[in-house]
Design goal:
The chain is α+β, with helices and mostly antiparallel strands. The chain contains 9 helices and 9 strands. Helix 6 packs antiparallel against helix 7.
Length: 282
């Protein structure tokens, strides 16, 4: 039975085997969030670390909606999605699996020379190599290679061939990225004082400390539009404290740490900080 022609039947069969599933629409992408969940207005599920939707019964939050519950899969909110679905997606990490997505012949050749053979599924342009064991998902770990496991979804393309083997250290090592010397943590903001402004214009050191603490709090409390919030917060801090030279590397590191705790990468933090400085002419 074809998973393309009968996605609901395939989904129920996979769910019965313990595979969390979700419908995918044209373009092999999840269905969009409902109005109540748009832009993560609902806050998502606590920690967003295990499969399953928030309190919304619809097909929301992509991989996080994946479920093995047949009652949910055939429920009215999902039924309309299955009627429009073109294929079945699944959450590998939720099933204790990792998919090494090989996008072209060169990537496949690399895998054959460097990774242990395991269950293999042909894709449109390459292959999925599936291993037993979950890990953090990462894209572009090397040319033509993505890792799909926790907090990600993969397209179900059939049972494949070969036997599952345990996730090798060679795959886990792909996700360990060395720090890039080209993008170090920004140094302290030091702007030459203008004539007659040799002293910090702020009333007391407490004023600066309060400002940094409030900035950290603003980032930490945001529930949506994290990129915009981080940039806006950096801009606000620099507009107040960026011209007197009182910001230190410790202050900057605190702001970056708050942003990264919300899912921002070090690169995004650096870019946002640089863009804010450029906007202010610092």
């Amino acid at each position: 039975m074809s998973e393309t022609l009968y996605p609901l039947h395939t989904a129920l069969s996979l769910a019965a085997s313990g595979m969390p599933v979700l419908p995918l629409r044209r373009g092999k992408v999840p269905f969009g969030n409902c109005p109540a969940c748009a832009d993560n207005a609902c806050g998502g599920r606590p920690n967003m670390k295990t499969p399953g939707p928030c309190r919304c019964p619809g097909v929301c939050h992509a991989w996080a909606a994946a479920t093995t519950d047949p009652a949910v899969i055939v429920s009215p909110p999902w039924a309309a999605a299955w009627q429009r679905a073109v294929c079945v997606g699944y959450h590998p990490g939720g099933a204790g699996l990792t998919v090494v997505d090989l996008d072209d012949a060169e990537a496949i050749g690399w895998a054959r020379g460097c990774l242990p053979a395991t269950r293999t599924v042909p894709t449109t342009r390459g292959e999925h190599w599936i291993y037993r064991g979950a890990m953090t998902s990462h894209n572009a770990v090397r040319p033509g290679v993505d890792i799909k496991s926790t907090m990600a979804y993969a397209r179900y393309l059939g049972p494949g061939t070969g036997h599952l083997v345990d996730l090798p250290d060679a795959v886990r090592a792909l996700a360990v990225k060395k720090p890039s010397p080209a993008r170090p943590t920004p140094p302290a903001v030091a702007v030459p004082s203008r004539a007659g402004e040799w002293e910090c214009p702020h009333r007391t050191p407490t004023y600066l400390e309060r400002g940094i603490a409030m900035a950290e709090q603003r980032i930490t409390r945001t529930r949506s539009a994290v990129h915009a919030t981080v940039y806006g917060t950096f801009l606000a801090v620099l507009s107040t404290h960026g011209r007197c030279g009182c910001l230190t590397e410790t202050h900057v590191a605190r702001l970056f740490a708050a942003a990264q705790a919300k899912g921002e990468t070090a690169r995004h933090c650096t870019d946002a900080w640089t863009n804010a400085r450029t906007t202010l002419g610092l």
